[in-house]
């Protein structure tokens, strides 16, 4: 039953997405066509077209779902416990030390294996 209720919205969404694509195309072609005009005027036109396209896109089912997801992500970001400056510096130094140590170990293994192979070959 829910798929029948969503069918008209889905058909309407196809037209909305087509309109969004049309607006983006008009913006690209218009920006190219009016390249001799002032950058300010072209920027205002592009922003206006992008605003209308965004408004239309957010009125679709997928656009509404995206909007809900963005709001939930914003809420989750507020719950994150960010590290202090000291923790960040200490962690960075530890990672740097491990990278340097591992690069020296791999260089040593590579040199040893190169020495073994050259001893076997010659």
Automatic annotation (TrEMBL):
UniProt protein name: Protein translocase subunit SecE
Family: Belongs to the SecE/SEC61-gamma family.
HAMAP family: SecE
Subunit structure, as described in the record: Component of the Sec protein translocase complex. Heterotrimer consisting of SecY, SecE and SecG subunits. The heterotrimers can form oligomers, although 1 heterotrimer is thought to be able to translocate proteins. Interacts with the ribosome. Interacts with SecDF, and other proteins may be involved. Interacts with SecA.
Function: Essential subunit of the Sec protein translocation channel SecYEG. Clamps together the 2 halves of SecY. May contact the channel plug during translocation.
Gene: secE
Lineage start: Bacteria, Pseudomonadati, Pseudomonadota, Gammaproteobacteria, Oceanospirillales
Keywords: Cell membrane, Membrane, Protein transport, Translocation, Transmembrane, Transmembrane helix, Transport
Residues passing through the membrane, by range: 14-34, 40-61, 93-117
InterPro entries assigned to the protein according to its UniProt record, in alphabetical order: SecE_bac, SecE_sf, Translocase_SecE/Sec61-g
Keyword Cell cycle: no
């Amino acid at each position: 039953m829910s798929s029948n209720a969503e069918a008209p919205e889905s058909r309407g969404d196809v037209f909305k997405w087509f309109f969004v694509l049309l607006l983006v195309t008009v913006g690209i072609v218009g920006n190219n066509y009016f390249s001799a005009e002032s950058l300010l005027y072209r920027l205002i036109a592009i922003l206006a077209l992008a605003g209308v396209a965004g408004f239309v896109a957010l009125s679709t089912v997928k656009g509404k779902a995206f909007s809900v997801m963005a709001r939930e992500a914003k809420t989750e970001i507020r719950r994150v416990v960010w590290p202090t400056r000291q923790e960040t510096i200490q962690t960075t130094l530890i990672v740097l030390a491990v990278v340097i140590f591992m690069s020296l170990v791999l260089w040593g293994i590579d040199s040893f294996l190169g020495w073994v192979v050259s001893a076997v070959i010659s």
